[in-house]
Amino acid sequence: VRAGAERLDNTAENAQYIRVAEAIAHPRYSFRTVYNDIAILKLANSFKWTTTVKPICLMSKPVNEIQMSENISLIVTGWGATDVGGESSNTLLRTPSL
């Protein structure tokens, strides 16, 4: 796993690399449609927290039990395609705050 860099094709950035000890794919992942394209990666070591490598918070409750307020914003990021059969990007993509 590479963390701390926005461009996949730039090896000069201050990225950190950690080996994956185990990968657990979503049980309903479909290679054909790319639906449920998410996995949990267990890392062999921990990352060093820096200005570009920080932890994220994961929800511990089902989404229908979360009380959202107007003051909460969400940001979606990724390198993947935004549609089945769509092109992917070497640059980290971000959507506006949701």
Describe the structure.
The protein is mainly beta and 98 residues long. Helix content is 0%, strand content 19%. The chain has no helices and six strands. It has a two-stranded antiparallel ribbon. The protein is globular. The mean pLDDT is 80.
Q: What is the fold's blueprint, element by element?
A:
Layout: E1 2-3, E2 16-17, E3 20-25, E4 39-43, E5 77-78, E6 93-94
Antiparallel strand pairs: 1-2, 3-4, 5-6
Task: Offer a concise description of the structure.
Residues 1-92 form the Peptidase S1 domain. Helices cover 0% and strands 19% of the residues.
Task: Report mean pLDDT, rounded to a whole number.
Answer: 80
Order of helices and strands: EEEEEE
Q: What is the helix tally?
A: 0
Strand content: 15-25%
Distance between the termini: 27 Å
- Low-confidence region ranges: none
Major sheet summary line: 2 strands, antiparallel
Overall 3D form: globular
Class per helix and strand makeup: mainly beta
InterPro entries: Peptidase_S1_PA, Peptidase_S1_PA_chymotrypsin, Trypsin_dom
Domain Peptidase S1: 1-92
Organism: Bracon brevicornis
Protein name: Peptidase S1 domain-containing protein
